[in-house]
Amino acid sequence: MDPFLQIVVSCLLPLLLIFICYHLKKSSSSTNSGPILAPEAAGAWPIIGHLHLFGGKNLTHKTLGAMADKDGPIFTIKLGSHKVVVVNNGEIAKDCLTTHDMAFSTRPTIVASKLLGYNYAMFGFAPYGDYWREMRKIATVELLSNQRLDLLKHIWSSEVDTWASELYNKLCLEKGSEKNRVLVDMKRWFGDLTEKDFMDVMLNILDGANVDGVDADTINKATCLNLMLAGSDTTMIALTWALSLLLNNPNKLQKAQLELDQIVGRERNVEESDIQNLIYLQAIIKETIRLYPPSPLLLRATKEDCTLTCGYHVRKGTRLMVNTWKIQREERVWGHNSEEFEPERFLTSHKEVDLRGKLGFEMVSFGGGRRSCHREKKAESFTMMGEEGLRTGRRWGWEVTVGVVGEGRRGWGFRG
Ligand code: HEM
């Protein structure tokens, strides 16, 4: 045989065999009369499964959303050797995160969490178990309790003030550079605002003790980093989107400014106690988080076998992805204008919907069940205080210019 042909045949033959085995295995498993599994989405390749569909320019939650339009509200995909069940519907998400909360209460053990998260010492990424339980208790009771945050309230308030002053100074210094306009990267500014330090409190609480075999120093580093990542990135994303949406919707911005003028006035900053009266601003935050959830996919793993109410069986070890982004744009729930920025819906047609999914799971931005975000209420007020920090600029006589902002587009600024 021609040597070239020999090489081609020896490379292709094993691939062909793998392909045939894969399809034989697939067809034999589909004729098994075992428990019913959610259907597998089309397009899997041997060995890598659906991996080739992700990455590149397309965002994962959008790709999965488009797959849901074809494959239905619940389907499975394969990411290499890992099977993932993908949920795109509020009712099924509620079933997973409340009725079967225990079965889905762990996080997947991924290499990134091990290597970057101090060997799973960052409790938000840790598997379900004694360490996670203990750390979640410490975080809830000692670090993020209302009492602790009230004690730190003055720091937050002065941070907002300093931040707004620095931003204003930057605008004054650079004023006139381009027809009185200054381009500001608000994502970076919001990022600076939300960084907090819990280290002192942790040093006092731990006092050299170790939790489930993890030493105090590692716990301290991991927990502070976890809270900074969990709290600052998400809040920064929500603030940046809120600002962007307001700039693109000047009539909503005016309504928000009017409400602030009426409830707070121009002589002082917003305080946390004002937030309950800032009804329209609350609706803006909810609508921002609905359209652009900072965590568009919830990631869990299955700790034990379970059968969902819809009849599908999920095996232990399967990963769970809840597509928050898709659920929060479902036309069936949010109406024909589900893709539009319409804060008013939270004052009228969707008045009863709250961020914690108490009513149904129309909103899943903060997750659900025992692994949910435990500071969702505070997150909402942090975001609003940040928004207000920005608007304190009104008192100094500068106003936001209406620019064109959108996904991947820049070009907004302030006018002094
Ligand atoms: C707009 C702001 C925020 C959003 C949208 C958000 C969203 C989320 C989501 C989706 C999860 C995963 C929930 C699940 O798997 O069910 C989560 C977990 C978590 N969040 Fe937040 N979060 C925000 C702000 C904060 C803040 C301010 C803090 C605290 C400083 C925080 C601390 C945490 C922690 C520690 C976890 C891990 C919980 C666990 O695994 O036990 N988050 N967050």
TrEMBL record:
Q: What cofactor is this protein dependent on? A: heme
Q: Which residues cross the membrane?
A: none
Entry coiled-coil feature ranges: none
Please indicate if the UniProt record lists Oxidoreductase as a keyword.
Answer: yes
What are the record keywords, sorted? Heme, Iron, Metal-binding, Monooxygenase, Oxidoreductase
SUPFAM superfamilies hit by this protein = Cytochrome P450
| Positions that bind heme | 373
- Protein's recorded name: Cytochrome P450
Query: To which species is this protein native?
Result: Cannabis sativa (Hemp)
